[in-house]
Write a structure and sequence with these properties.
Number of domains: 2
Number of helices: 7
Strand order of the largest sheet: 6-2-5-3-4-8
Distance between the termini: 32 Å
Strand content: 5-15%
Oligomer: single chain
Number of strands: 8
Structural class: alpha+beta
Radius of gyration: 30 Å
Length: 391
């Protein structure tokens, strides 16, 4: 019974009887004492009802509004991050046991980009929640995608196929926009270069993901500290960053380092885009950007997949099918890995949800906002990539 119903029942059944009794008593000291008692009784009933109603209120979510960040940030030392992750995992192992070992979430960063069939032996013994993937090409920024995956490698392969379909639509959209540009002036030529480069890289990404490329560079897992330590000691694992503070994945932002980042976290440079006015062409790349480790033929799990070289990738107008690619000076929102951020933004300064392209396209470009909800099982994390996950 709700508090309002209880008070209405008191008014309907109790108060009329008390009023009739008071009328029969007439006037005098007895009636005054009776009315005082009734007033005290009603006050007590209201207080009891209020306390009872407060106890019946549902308990709110204590984690609402809290966002936990796990991983690296722009400008952070990579060796320092790796060492700190080892120390935190060692502290979990050394903690005195007070019962069953707690299962802890952790961010696993790989030392190379791996194909889906290379993941089972590396992640054996722990539960996998999601993986992060990116098609790496020297001097090119490509989009980071987050693929929810509990079954390895089946869910990763399925997620890559969905990414490939989305990239096909994105490439088509770029080509249509390029064909719609009218005129042959400098501005129109620049617009065509932007759209044509976006179509090229999206097409290359589609081919790569459809071929099950060596693109996965991190995973979010859950397991006991002993199991996490076994993963950390396996070949191909760069760091296991335990996160015992994480309770909900949809309230957590993961920012794994890219394999080519060896000294400091920085967004990958893109030397393939037309330079902005006053900016010389051929932007320098990060120290290790031209020599990133990938799985080699003959390694565990078989030969790697060869994919075409992308000629351009980032800081292009947004399309309605995949969101913007990362820009050298772009900002991040939501669950964004480091370097080239999900949804194409580099880490550092957050932007409001629904922000447009990471770097302004040439005047006259016609960007279309990316969808605010994930596409299938593979999403461009933009905070969404929004952080996603299981409760």
């Amino acid at each position: 019974m709700r508090p309002g119903d209880l008070l209405r029942q008191l008014d309907r059944h109790v108060l009329p009887r008390l009023a009739r009794g008071a009328a029969r008593l007439g006037h005098g000291a007895l009636r005054l004492r009776l009315l005082s008692g009734v007033a005290l009784l009603c006050t007590a009933a209201v207080l009891v009802t209020a306390v009872w109603a407060a106890d019946q209120q549902p308990v709110g979510d204590p984690t609402r509004g809290d966002v936990t960040r796990v991983g690296v940030v722009q400008g952070q030392s990579i060796p320092g991050y790796v060492e700190a992750s080892r120390s935190e995992l060692a502290a979990l192992l050394a903690a005195p046991a007070t019962g069953p070992a707690p299962r802890t979430y952790a961010l696993v960063a790989f030392s190379a980009y791996l194909a889906p069939d290379r993941l089972p032996p590396v992640l054996a013994g722990v539960e996998v929640s999601e993986v992060y993937a990116r098609l790496w090409r020297p001097g090119v920024q490509t989009q980071i995608v987050r693929i929810p995956a509990q079954r390895i490698p089946e869910d990763v392969i399925a997620g890559m196929l969905e990414v490939a379909e989305r990239k096909d639509r994105e490439a088509r959209d770029y080509r249509e926009r390029s064909a719609a540009v009218v005129g042959d002036g400098p501005r129109e030529q620049e617009l065509r270069r932007w759209y044509d480069s976006g179509a090229q890289v999206a097409s290359d990404e589609a081919i790569a993901y459809r071929s099950r490329c060596s693109c996965v560079y991190a995973a979010v897992v859950r397991g006991e500290p002993v199991a996490l330590d076994r993963v950390a000691n396996r070949s191909g694992v760069r760091a296991v960053d335990p996160a015992p503070e994480v309770r909900r994945l949809d309230r957590t932002v993961f920012t794994p380092p890219l394999p080519e980042q060896v000294d400091v976290v920085r967004p990958p440079a893109d030397a393939s885009l037309p330079p902005e006015p006053g900016v010389p062409s051929g932007s320098p790349t990060s120290p290790a950007s031209s020599d990133v480790p990938t799985e080699t033929p003959g390694g565990p799990g078989g030969p790697s997949v060869t994919t075409p070289t992308c000629t351009v990738a980032a800081a292009r107008p947004t399309t309605d099918s995949g969101g913007p690619h990362p820009g050298p000076a772009a900002a991040t929102t939501g669950a964004e890995p480091s370097g080239a951020a999900p949804g194409g933004r580099a880490p550092g300064t957050p932007t409001p949800d629904g922000a447009g392209p990471t770097k302004a396209p040439p005047d006259g470009a016609d960007p279309v906002d990316a969808p605010s909800t994930p596409v299938g099982t593979a999403t461009a994390t933009g905070p969404a990539a929004t952080p996603g996950g299981e409760p």
